[in-house]
Amino acid sequence: MSDFVICINNDSNPASLIVGKVYRTLSDPEAEAHNMLRVIDEDKSEPDGYLYPASMFAPIELPEEAKQVLMTAGD
User: Fold this and answer.
1) Per-residue pLDDT averaged across 58-72, rounded?
2) Within 1-75, where are the H helices?
3) Are strands 22-26 and 36-39 parallel, antiparallel or unpaired?
């Protein structure tokens, strides 16, 4: 899975996710086996992220410069 995804559906979580926004994912093979993703969402109170259905996101590739900025955002 990509380190970053873009939200394509926030119907069940409009307060936590913004459609069109890029989110960082954290590796979670068990969650991925159940078609879920561990995502650092708008709340940011949980450093381990929250689980969301993978269908709410599309994986994206970013330029290295953008990856570096997003990896350190919120630190």
Assistant:
1) 90
2) 29-33, 64-72
3) antiparallel
